[in-house]
Amino acid sequence: MKPNRRPFPVVLILFVGSGGAALIYEIVWFQLLELVIGSTAVSLAVLLGTFMGGMCLGSLLLPRLVSLRRHPLRVYALFELAIGAFGLLVLFAMPVVVRFYASLAGPGFGGILLRALVAAVCLLAPTTLMGATLPAVSRWLEATPEGVARMGFLYGSNTAGAVLGCLLAGFYLLRVHDMTAATFAAVALNLVVTGIALFLAARTLHRPAEKQAEDSRHGPKMKPWPVYLAIALSGCSALGAEVIWTRLLSLLLGATVYTFSIILTVFLAGLAAGSAAGAYTARRTASPLAALGYCQLFLGAAIAWTAFIITKSLPFWPVNPQLVTNPWFGFQLDLLRTIWAVLPPTLFWGASFPLALAAAAPGGKEPGRFVGHVYAANTVGAIVGSIGFSLVLVPWIGTRASQMILIALAFVAAAVALASALRPFFRPSKSALPEPGLRGVTIVAAGLVAALLFSIPKTPWELIAYGRDVPRKVGEATPLFVGEGTNSSVAVTQLAEGIRNFHVSGKVEASSDPQDMRLERMLGHIPALVHPAPKSVLVVGCGAGVTAGAFLVHPTVERVVICEIEPLIPKVVARYFGSENYDVVEDPRVRIVIDDARHYILTTDERFDIITSDPIHPWVKGSATLYTREYFEMCRRRLNPGGVITQWVPLYDSSEDVVRSEVATFFDVFPGGTIWSNDLMGMGYDVVLLGRDGPTRIDVDALDGRLRNSDHAVVALSLQEVNLGTAVALLSTYAGRDAELKPWLAKAERNRDRNLRLQFIAGLALNAGHSGITYEHMLSYRAFPEDLFIVTDPLRGELRKALGFSD
After folding, report:
1. What's the sign of the alpha-carbon dihedral 441, 447, 453, 454?
2. In the structure, what pLDDT confidence band is assigned to residue 6 with cuts at 50, 70 and 90?
3. What is the DSSP letter of 38?
4. Same domain, yes or no: 49 and 134
5. Is residue 807 domain-resident?
6. Three-class SS of residue 693?
7. Which end of the chain is more exposed for a tag (fewer CB within 10 A), N or C?
8. Could you tell me the pTM of the whole model?
9. Where are the alpha helices (DSSP H) in 283-393?
């Protein structure tokens, strides 16, 4: 056996396995830590920066800390084993992390530093090991064109493994099992990789360290900064584009957990395929640096292609997603659209890395060192791109101008690489490269890329407002406001009949339509009237501000805290609904907190008489954390004695299994809970779940008296505006309770922090349209609750009649 040659295909397979495990860990760790430090853009930037920072650190430290005498495959095996151990440690230590963080967390810059500390403690060690694996195995290869090409193939196979890990985690492990099972699967991959790598290490030779050092002394000196700068700019544009295009495509396809998996899969698959092509090219080109420059030029054109397809083409395809009742057929269509839009530029980003390796290889450096430097430069650029575009550029200048910057970055990277190729830094001679027409082609290509900067179309407001329903909604409304915020894109539109809609995540989230106004008022008035004298209220999700405003008209309410994740919503959107929300954002009793609601409830010490939660739909990725048993338990701990909580549950864009999961999980924490229906012509629309810290009894006569008193005149008027102006009318929305619905809920899946089951089953049911069937089955268990309503005649007879029960 020739040393280091025959086992190379096996090592490629090992890198597929380690890439798959790494991607599974990334998905699991991000979900676990988002439950702790929140899911705001700042928190996600902290997580991503820490994850990629650790990989950068590992690529730089490996050559400095690990001796050349150690067999590279044995080092790689030990790293994989340690990664698996850290994977288990992070999983089982998370409850301790939660308690530690909750005891110290606070607002402001100190709170951000604490989030960074928690992320570093959990992620820095394993990600440093992940970043060191490629430089470690690169030492097993020679710094020859053939060897450098193989290093590029290693990078590509690792990325291909990430594709498999993304699909495995997103569509099976987390959908069918939970984060524990996914972690165990990743650990199993680490163990298999470790075992095979140790087996190979025992049967392959490793060149003595002295021989590599001798090669290093005889190599020519080089100044590789153009390579590092070009690949850093490439990494910056790649992660910036991923931020922008994931945001836009999630609007177009529906922001389900499956959509994010599809987008990431296509992105990684393009990188893997491009890496293979780049490695093949690097072995055959006379000037890898020039090839890197041309690759970046073509990348600029490909970015323009994607920007055009996402903003001017795909949104207006004649596709009606609601006609696709089988979600797996819908996934095929989403995959096709994502490939059509995103694949071209990812091929060039993928090809850039092996070309950069080949350009940096001359000069005699030992492979682990120059591979680590190129990898670190690329990763630093990626960190800057992900944080800069998500936190600064998109909220500041929008997605259109941000995509112009992507093209500019590609052009600058091309200019750096091509200028260095024309005036070779790596050679003693200053003669130009013997490639005919290089200068002329470069000038023409640069002009074309510069022209592309101004060809990027504006992001259509219809995409931000209607998302996947754009083809059915074009021409339906007039935009009043469109904004791309830090965490989400929002819009306010007005229909011809004067109805105003608030849009977020590509869907209508609140409006002045009577049906929506009824629900928004119910979420405020029902708990405020069930509670004898509420003083403090927490509203989860500002929306149009109507629910929060409903509390202000109750005479005993002294303080309302609104927790909203997107700053644009209370700052701008709520003002468009001032007449409906009683100018809630201007009221001195109101405090607006910009934070992830779950994070705020975890870290605040304040208690409330009422918590009302109106989060975004459960099929939107990340929103399932506001429907888990652990979230409801946190809410219960933040209630004063006798406190009341209400939770919105949509019946539309959902299935019966999804609704049963939401209701059963809520009732597990609030036994004796009740359901109140915002019905749409008897077909069901959405409901309000009500729970209490203690037994719920409603004195109907006393409630009727409160609504007739002068101090509740504005409350009664607010309810009259949505046809619920009397106690009987309001209580006629009763749709069932815990004790009656036990048979219906017996087999419901509980949504827990460790499985987030709801986001997976809700994502599959997005086009189900089962609201009527769900509502009918729910009502079939309803009986008149004699022990819930304390009522005397004649109100008792009126209430029974309103609920459809005969005397």
Report:
1. negative
2. low
3. -
4. yes
5. no
6. coil
7. C
8. 0.92
9. 288-308, 327-360, 367-387
- The backbone region for 474, taken as left when phi is positive above 0, alpha when psi lies in -120 to 50, beta otherwise, is beta
The number of distinct structural domains making up the chain is: 4
Beta bridge partners of 503: 491, 508
- Alpha carbon separation from 210 to 140, 366, 471, 745 (Å, rounded): 14, 11, 67, 70
The SS3 of residue 649 is strand
Under the banding of pLDDT at 50, 70 and 90, the label for residue 530 is very high
Bridge partners of 611, per DSSP, are: 538, 645
pLDDT tens digits, 34-81: 999 988 888 889 999 999 999 999 999 988 888 888 889 999 999 999
Alpha-carbon dihedral angle through residues 575, 581, 586, 588, given to the nearest 10 degrees: -160
Yes or no: say if 330 and 454 are a contact pair by the CB < 8 Å rule: no
Tokens of 652: 């539309």
Token pair of 555, please?
Answer: 């005479």
- Does residue 630 sit within a domain? yes
Give residue for tokens 């949505």: 722
Strands 608-613 and 536-540: parallel
Residue 743 belongs to what domain range?
A: 512-802
Do 682 and 626 belong together in one domain? yes
Q: How confident is the model at residue 275 (pLDDT cuts 50, 70, 90)?
A: very high
C-alpha 614/C-alpha 546 separation (Å) is: 11
Residue 398: closest CA among 485, 462, 303, 466: 485
Q: How many alpha carbons lie under 13 Å from residue 221 in its C-beta half-sphere?
A: 2
Confidence category of residue 429, pLDDT binned at 50, 70, 90:
very low
Q: What is the pLDDT of residue 421?
A: 81
- Same domain flag for 77 and 171: yes
Question: Which residues are CB-contacts of 445 (< 8 A; sequence separation ≥ 6)?
Answer: 294, 297, 414
Classify residue 533 by burial, with Cβ atoms within 10 Å: 0-12, 13-18, 19+. exposed
**653 conformational bin, left if phi > 0, alpha if psi -120 to 50, beta if neither:** left
Supply 90's token pair.
């992070």
- Kindly give, in sequence order, each residue whose CB lies less than 8 Å from that of residue 804, ignoring residues fewer than 6 positions away: none
Residue at a domain's end among 162, 194, 218? 218
In 3D space, the residue among 575, 498, 588 whose CA is nearest the CA of residue 543 turns out to be 575
Q: How far apart are CA 30 and CA 226, in angstroms?
A: 34
d(CA 88, CA 379): 26
**Tokens describing residue 250:** 């999630």
**Measuring CA to CA, how many Å separate 458 from each of 495, 502, 519?**
23, 21, 35
Asked which of 218, 234, 265 is the last residue of a domain, the reply is 218
The type of residue at 239 is: L
The mean pLDDT value for 221-243 works out to: 89
Residues 129-146: pLDDT tens digits? 999 999 999 888 877 778
